[in-house]
Design brief:
The complex is a heterotrimer of chains A (318), B (339) and C (348).
Chain A: H1 2-9, H2 16-21, H3 24-30, H4 33-50, H5 52-55, H6 96-132, H7 134-149, H8 152-174, H9 176-204, H10 207-215, H11 219-227, H12 232-255, H13 267-275, H14 284-311
Helix pairs in contact in A: 3-14, 4-6, 4-14, 6-7, 6-9, 6-12, 6-13, 7-9, 8-9, 9-12, 10-11, 12-13, 12-14, 13-14
Chain B: E1 4-15, E2 18-30, E3 35-39, H1 46-53, E4 61-70, E5 73-74, H2 80-90, E6 91-94, H3 98-101, H4 108-119, H5 124-137, H6 143-146, H7 156-168, E7 174-178, H8 186-203, E8 206-211, H9 214-220, E9 223-228, E10 231-237, H10 238-243, H11 248-255, H12 291-295, H13 298-306, E11 311-314, E12 317-320, H14 322-338
Parallel strand pairs in B: 3-8, 3-9, 6-7, 7-8
Antiparallel strand pairs in B: 1-2, 1-4, 4-5, 9-10, 10-12, 11-12
Helix pairs in contact in B: 4-5, 5-7, 7-8
Chain C: E1 17-27, H1 32-35, E2 36-39, E3 42-45, E4 49-60, E5 65-69, H2 76-83, E6 91-96, E7 99-100, H3 106-115, E8 116-119, H4 133-144, H5 150-163, H6 180-192, E9 198-202, H7 210-227, E10 230-235, H8 238-244, E11 247-252, E12 255-261, H9 262-267, H10 272-279, H11 319-323, E13 329-330, E14 336-337, H12 340-344
The chains are: A mainly alpha (318), B alpha/beta (339), C alpha/beta (348).
Chain lengths: 318, 339, 348
Amino acid sequence: MTTTNSSMAAAPVASRWSRFRGSYLLYSFKRDPVAQLSLLVFIVLVGVAVLAPWLAPMDPYDLAQIDILASELPPFWIDGSDPAYVMGTDAQGRDLLSTILYGARVSLIIGFGAVALQALLGVSFGLLAGYLGGRVDAFLMRLADIQLSFSTLMVAIVVGALVKAAFGGATYSDYAVPLLVLIIGLAEWPQYARTVRASVLAERSKEYVDAARVMGFSSRRIMFRHILPNTLSPIFVISTVQVANAIISEAALSFLGLGMPETHPSLGSLIKSGFDYIQSGSWWITLIPGAMLVILVLVINLLGDWLRDVLNPRLYKG
Amino acid sequence: MALLDVTNLDVRFALRRGDVQALRDVCFSLERGERLGIVGESGAGKSVAAFSLLNLIAKPGYIAGGSIHFDGQELTAMSDRGLRHVRGHRMSMIFQDPMMTLNPVLTIGEQMVECLKAHRRISTKEARAISLRKLEQVQIPSPSARLDQYPHELSGGMRQRVIIAIALLLDPDIIIADEPTTALDVTIQAEIMALLLELCEKHNVGLILITHDLGVVSQVTQRMLVMYAGRVIEQGPTREIINDPQHPYTQGLINALPQMATPGARLNQIPGSMPSLDNLPSGCAFHPRCGFVARADGSTRHACTDEVPDFVTSGNCRVACHMVAEMLDRERIPAEEIR
Amino acid sequence: MSSTAHATAAEPASPLLEIRGVEKRFSLSGDFLEQLKFKGGKLVREQKHVHAINGVDLDIQRGEALCVVGESGCGKSTVARTVMGLLHPSAGEIRYDGERIDDLSHKALMPYRRRMQMIFQNPYASLNPRMTIQQTLEEPIRLHHPDWSTQRVRDQVAEVMASVGIAADWGARYGHEFSGGQRQRIAIARALAVDPEFIVADEPISALDVSIQAQVLNLLMEAQQQRNLTYLFITHDLAVVEHFGTRVAVMYLGRVCEVAPTATLFARPRHPYTQALMSAIPRLEDDRPQHIRLQGEVPTPVNLPSGCVFHGRCPHANARCRSEIPQLIAADDGSQVACHAVEEGRID
């Protein structure tokens, strides 16, 4: 076993790299084919989404490239397909492959953006609530309860409707991405806050925090320098689940017509746009982006499961 | 033939680094009604030794070799069913934390009755009567009321009494107690130990007491084993080992106690710390910390650093140490010359 | 007040630390809404408290090691944490070097933070798992000496590491790479890094193995001699007290029942609880006297017994013990005992 001794041999001063090489994280990753496959698929999906402008055969946002006569063409393995459009075309004549790549990009941007916002809010509030306790804790956690009692959809419907009514549909389309990030981010921060608060409570009772207080460090420094780094594991785990959730939320909102406009479709709005044509036999406009969405969310969740198992100290046996 | 005979017990843990040997060549025996102490620091393997007796080692641990002979039966070769019978009827265990053993959602009575009915064909009424009698034996105040109480309603000392009552429930031949009083306060600890001692003597029950506390061992047991890094390094009558330890580690352990030094003076410390089992020193596992090795001459020092010491008999004790072996040899030569 | 320069060992002028009538209660009742209860058809506000310590008076002289012993729940750790400002006393005051420190702001307390340090019980929890040893040791020095150069901070770390027997190359490693005894050395180094004069040690060796306990006790005694430290040493282990302590305070259920010079206490324990506690230590000798059996168990600190807190378990209790709280009364041999029976001469 080559990895076995590296942690022992490199013990005196281990570099970050050798630390990683000897780590349990890498070891369990090497032994988990599901995690390996999931990571591979995830990297490929993120890669093609990020590189969409260079990889996609055409630009679905460019009206000049769209040929309305080539609408509803089936994918290549079905009779009547056009070799120029591998995955066929949608009702507006856009190349489905290109649209999916661009759509995955939008979905991922919203997913990660929303999670970043959730994490920012949730981690700060969770830290404050857990460390300061007392009234701050009671106030922030009641706030979280209230927030959780509104579903994401409800918040999105109200905010979306208000913005559309106030600024008109065109402005809404322009700011749809930041707006969705804001809505999903605001709706789900309590998940982070609760997780972080729970682990802050656990860490706060440990003696290294008392030691820091006895030294005379300020609360802020203790919170961010001492406690926060030790709550990162659960934050990582919950982040994977939350990214998947945010992508689903966005898809659901778009499917309901409250998300991305069809001119800048996300995976969700693509599914919706194809839904009307399913009856007329053009199933691929809905099912291919749908499959993409399922695969994307599935691999993120599988990675999250694996990460949770690895980072769970109760399961950890070195 | 002793009631319990353990020979060359070898327990390993299959870890990702490969197998780690938690116990090597552990041999000891226990007569009926005898009280044996297993002493060692954390990582010495004393709990593993106790758990392996009942084949209770959690995965990835497994018994890799040796034999455990109990009252004519070989436990290492026994089926799970047979082992369960032995566990309940013949040997029982007392753990350090009573809350680990007691189910928090069942009353004391329910747990005792359940345990009895699992092993004997008796009615609930009879089982309750037996349970009550056992609670009386452990001198719990108002025992009949305790039967209907939940574990959390009892204090720590009381819970440990209940645990002892449960351990005695099926009239076992041997009780294995793993640090039974470590979680308790000194005054309670003294009472629990006195109770355990009294009950074992009265019912002629053997006791295997696992502890790090030399004081407790010297008060309660007749014979003791000292373990270090997965091996037994010294065994013999408790009093003899406490009064005249042979192995340098046992000597160090006893001399390190604050009561062995004059108040305010430096304590006799053993340098270093117990090696981890996956990275044992060559030869005698204690040699890097042993004060004698540094002072030893060439051949003995080589023996300490290169060869695993065998047991030698010194008086009533058996010691695994090259130094002791050499000293015994030296004493023997003049004896022959005189003749 | 005479200055410390004139103080002699026998009659110290002013104690380094004075604990005066300190009480600490913890509420069990939660917030205001949870305290409301229906009683006899009326809505009343009811609060339950754990009385962790009730009126503790202790003086700690310069250069001594005062050991506080007692069983779990007697409030000895609460005393330590209150002295260090980790808890605020519910009543009473704490003076350090003549100045009251229990009501100071975070900022005003800073100079005392440097002079007073603490060592904790659990070496596995007292080091931040995400910081290297070097970072752990540098951090407090930088906080208290912001004007020091990087080199000077490093020199100080190197000096303190050497003094507790830590190899210099440990600095780049993390706490979890070390054994319990090694971690406790690091924790001691952290406390010594800011050159304190007073150290509170809360059960610093009880989580360690026997052979390691001796190493750490030796280290603490060396540090005391070299740096002229004063200790408040919390422990449940009387054998350690006998070896380590200059004076001993025995606590029971939040009160001090006996304070005496170590040799005096061990030669002649006077309080019935101290006697029971000492008889319960498992000794190596064969021929020890039978231990004194106490009736019952320690009552909960929620509803304190009236009078002497020990009366329910004391073989010498009478009507006065059940009603009147005994105060610490000084005897000729330097000991103080809070017991009516001792005061009245009913017991020796």
